[in-house]
Amino acid sequence: MNRTAQSVWDNCLEFINDNIQPQAFKTWFEPIIAVKLTENALSIQVPSKFFYEWLEEHYVKILKVSLNKELGENAKLVYIIKMENTYGNKQPFTEKIPSANRTSLKSQDVDVPFNNKNPELRNPFIIPGIRNVKIESQLNPSYNFENFLEGDSNRLARNAGIAVANKPGGTSFNPLLIFGGVGLGKTHLAHAIGVDIKDKYPDKTVLYISSEKFTQQFIDSVKSNTRNDFIHFYQMIDVLIIDDVQFLSGKAGTQDVFFHIFNHLHQNGKQVILTSDKAPVDMQDIEQRLLSRFKWGLSAELQAPDFETRISILQNKLFRDGVQMPDDIVEYIAKNIKSNVRELEGVIISMIAQASFNRREFSLELAKQIVDKFVKNTKKEVSIDYIQKEVSKYFDMDVATLQSKTRKRHIVQARQLAMFFAKRLTKTSLASIGNQIGQRDHATVLHACKTVDNLTETDKQFRKYVDDLTKKLTF
Ligand code: ADP
Ligand code: MG
Description:
Blueprint: H1 5-19, H2 22-28, E1 33-37, E2 41-46, H3 49-58, H4 60-71, E3 76-83, E4 93-98, E5 108-111, E6 132-135, H5 155-166, E7 176-180, H6 186-200, E8 206-210, H7 211-223, H8 227-235, E9 239-243, H9 252-267, E10 271-276, H10 288-294, E11 298-302, H11 307-320, H12 327-336, H13 341-357, H14 364-380, H15 384-394, H16 399-403, H17 409-425, H18 430-436, H19 442-458, H20 460-474
Parallel strand pairs: 2-3, 7-10, 7-11, 8-9, 9-10
Antiparallel strand pairs: 1-2, 3-4, 5-6
Magnesium ion is lined by residues 186-187, 243-244.
């Protein structure tokens, strides 16, 4: 068998293609060129440093898995960065970087009490059977205070975070609850506090975990009869950071166990940091006793950043990526993307990607196209309720009629249209669409979508319904 860089890479691509979104594959993998193969190292050429960083940040796992399959356990990946004449660099140049050379936080040693009868702690962060265990902090060092820009919108939360990092467990901000909408920096700030604590107090055990993962671990521990180990594990932590606690809602068992862990940590002067997409008063299905604990410390809100802050966030991002962009373009983006920092960054990433793959200049026109896409995507998120209301209104009936069990043709059609648009305009599953539109099952929804597709092609009147409703629902 004669293996070449190309054949090995082709196999990797096949595997990767099966496992990621088509758009992502097109954007990040198609432009890569396989260059060289030695015994266990494959060199691939990527178009920019940014590109390399992006692959390392988002796709390093899948790259590793696919390469291991091809070249065995010791497989190595080497990036060759070939800078074309983009971003005003005069000469194209290349640079070689091995995969995964990022600095990461060291793992932390913790002594598990001897009296622990079952040394096999069923916790993914523990090496089983060893008394002195290592706990990975799960912190992302690239989320730090330095690159979390301050503005009116986040001043309180950011400064409270700094205060907590200076004196973990020693301020009245315990717990510190950071809340705010999607993409406003909750996760970033939570990591930043942890990263700063590890810098200042290397001996403290810090653990970052999402509430989903926490819940899953708890469920696993119940299944394997190691609930006590689970609790002990968390009680050893000095700084516990739990992200997105709104996901604990309705999960009574997990809330209960968290309540005990929380009390133990709090009583022992350990720091707890929580994030949530809502203020405690607005949280639903969270036990009262837990809610009251959340309110003990400080709840600090992250609001949408104002224009100036948006500009500085964009400029900082560009600076870090080593990219220059004219001011008018930066201002255009900041003016049009208002309520989500992740989207601000998304626009910059798309701009850089477009510019480097298609050899396009940064232009206001390109910015407009990309911003439009982002804005449309957010607008597109209509609710199924809204779809039902609009469709009913269009056909002059009320929502109850649309949902009713009747087989009258015009009502059936209205219902099918509602299902069709729910499928097209939301990310909801067929089953859930059926459930929300008159308690039907997923097969009915599937049938509805097919019927609408067929009628749209064969029936002119019907096509007009679809066109009219599309306009109503998407503008
Ligand atoms: P959330 O957890 O609230 O949904 P994230 O913490 O994931 O939001 O933030 C989304 C993106 O926006 C991240 O890439 C983060 O680095 C960035 N970000 C948010 N706020 C700021 C800020 N004040 N300065 C710099 N970057 C920010
Ligand atoms: Mg988050």
